[in-house]
Specification:
Organism: Bacillus yunxiaonensis
Helix content: 40-55%
Structural class: alpha/beta
Keywords: Hydrolase, Membrane, Transmembrane, Transmembrane helix
CATH class of the largest domain: Alpha Beta
Protein name: Polysaccharide deacetylase family protein
Shape: globular
GO molecular function, one term: hydrolase activity
Number of domains: 2
Pfam families: Polysacc_deac_1 (PF01522)
CATH superfamily of the largest domain: Glycoside hydrolase/deacetylase
Radius of gyration: 39 Å
Number of helices: 9
Length: about 270
């Protein structure tokens, strides 16, 4: 009887061991499958991709930096008076070739004869300012026709290009002709005036493009300069060298922007 009981006990123990072994093998197998299964691995990964709609939105403002790589940003505005003329096309060609936009101050009476050139000027991103109708000192300043003539020129520009420019340039500069009374009229009409910081004196240097270049390059030294030039043959001849030399001095080129106007008149009148 005791012998039978011992046998049963031994059999039961063996069965228990076998069952435990089977369970251990099965558990190990399923664990191995869960670890190595690609589907499981992907399912258990945390999504590290952030959709555009989930990303924080930061408003970026395209503002020209005053400094770049620790260096002060130097800017020059190339401006051209007394057009449109036969020389405007060549000036525009040079500006386009160099990826530069210029600021032009044109006489209203000249515009009808050069409509296509003026349209091109605007299409290529240049600014179409006006420069009176007659360029006559007596009529503009002594007879007080300044604002009247500028409005006429603005209307012609609007008719040809669709743009009504607010920026004008006084023939012969704003001082002394642009009196307080005339400046009051300008301010009431919403006009802005730009004189200049560097005068090329190109108008009195026919046949001397080197002299024009020298006048400009030697006097452009400040962080922001506005260069006065005219639509003249000698200016066309000097323009590429002026651009090259100013770039060597570290200057970039800008065009006037009404949304970013800064006062530049000899009277220091911030209204205009």
């Amino acid at each position: 009887m005791v012998d039978v009981t011992n046998r049963r006990s031994t059999v039961i123990k063996r069965l228990v061991i076998v069952v435990i072994a089977i369970c251990a093998v099965a558990a190990g197998f399923f664990m191995f499958q869960s670890i190595t299964s690609p589907a499981k691995a992907v399912a258990n990964q945390k999504n590290s991709v952030q959709f555009a709609s989930e990303q924080p939105k930061v408003e970026m403002k395209k503002v020209a930096p005053e400094k770049y790589n620790g260096q002060v940003r130097k800017v020059v505005y190339l401006t051209f008076d007394d057009g449109p003329s036969e020389f405007q096309k060549e000036i525009l060609d040079i500006l386009k070739k160099n990826d530069i936009k210029g600021t032009f101050f044109m006489i209203g009476g000249n515009i009808p004869a050069y409509k296509e050139s003026v349209k091109r000027l605007v299409k290529e991103g240049n600014y179409p300012g006006v420069h009176s109708m007659t360029h006559n000192y007596t009529k503009l300043y002594k007879e007080g026709k300044f604002v009247e003539e500028m409005k006429q020129a603005q209307d012609i520009m609007k008719e040809v290009t669709g743009i009504h420019p607010n920026l004008v340039r006084c023939p012969y500069g704003s001082m002394p002709g642009l009196t307080q009374a005339l400046r009051d009229q300008m301010a009431s009409a919403g006009m802005k005036e730009w004189d200049w910081t560097v005068d090329s004196l190109d108008w009195k240097l026919p046949g001397n493009p080197n002299g024009v270049t020298q006048n400009v390059v030697s006097h452009v030294n400040k962080e922001r300069e506005v260069v006065l030039m005219h639509e003249k043959k000698q200016t066309v001849q000097a323009l590429q060298t002026i651009i090259d030399d100013l770039r060597k001095k570290g200057y970039e080129f800008e065009v006037y922007d009404e949304a970013d106007h800064f006062p530049l008149n000899f009277w220091h009148d911030n209204r205009i």
